[in-house]
Design a protein that fits this description.
The chain is mainly alpha-helical. The chain is built from eleven helices and no strands. Helices cover 72% and strands 0% of the residues.
């Protein structure tokens, strides 16, 4: 009984296995077409169905009569003119074009950044030429005031320059020049034009300083001469009014002084 049960179970397993198995059906016509379409060069001998004896195979005519040029055409996607080959070439061309566009865009970006750095006035302080030269040359202009302008000048000269308005003229000119300099530094301007503006204003500032020093020297000389003339007049008046001198002596003294 036990052996019979085992035999039945074995038969059921075999029957179930055969029922689940799938028979692989291979059609040589399909295989030939797959090989032709994928990787193999076409072989005319593999054109199936063939003509048969004396070309009497009806399947051949039913199949290839409608496609007479098909055996002559290479259908492989990776052939010289295949679709996949053309697709690969197109992808390569598109990649090359994309790289060219990317390079062009990067060039435009870098050029735009350089131009922005050349024009933006907000970063003019970082200009190497300003840092190395012009900032030191214009440093005294930022510090101009009545005290610094009259530094090292005598008290009488200071009073004269303040009283005559020469000091105020120098301060006004310095303030106007400083405003122009600050405008050149803060305005969006080409770097070359900004440097040329620095150069022109530095030349004007040097001329202004030279004129200011000349005016201080002239004021000092004028005050010295005025003091000398005043003292001479007092001396002349004392000499003219001194007793014991005749009119002729006084006249001769006046003539002699006038010749001097």
């Amino acid at each position: 009984m036990k052996n019979l049960l085992l035999l039945c179970i074995a038969l059921l397993i075999v029957i179930q296995g055969r029922a689940q198995s799938v028979r692989r059906i291979t059609d040589q016509h399909i295989v030939n077409q797959q090989e032709r379409m994928v990787f193999k060069q076409w072989d005319k001998k593999k054109f199936t169905p063939t003509k048969g004896f004396l070309g009497l195979n009806p399947n051949y005519w039913l199949t290839w009569a409608w496609h007479p040029n098909y055996p002559k055409k290479d259908r492989r996607p990776l052939s010289g003119n295949g679709e996949q080959t053309q697709r690969i070439l197109l992808v390569a061309a598109m990649k090359s074009t994309e790289e060219a566009y990317t390079k062009h865009a990067d060039t435009l970006r870098n050029t735009a950044l350089i131009e922005m750095l050349n024009y933006v006035g907000a970063i003019s302080d970082t200009d190497p030429l300003w840092q190395l030269y012009y900032s030191a040359e214009f440093q005294s202009l930022y510090q101009v005031n009545s005290t610094s302008a009259l530094e090292g000048t005598e008290a009488g000269v200071k009073d004269y320059l303040s009283r005559t308005g020469v000091l105020q003229w120098f301060l006004d000119e310095s303030t106007a020049l400083l405003e122009r300099l600050q405008a050149a530094r803060s305005t969006n301007l080409d770097r070359g034009s900004r440097i040329m503006a620095y150069h022109r204003m530095l030349d004007e500032y040097r001329k202004l300083r030279s004129i200011w020093e000349t005016k201080k020297q002239q004021a000092k000389r004028f005050l010295s001469l005025a003091k000398t003339v005043s003292g001479q007049r007092q001396h002349d008046n004392t000499s003219l009014d001194s007793p014991g001198r005749t009119d002729v002596q006084i006249a001769d003294d006046v003539l002699r002084k006038s010749k001097l």
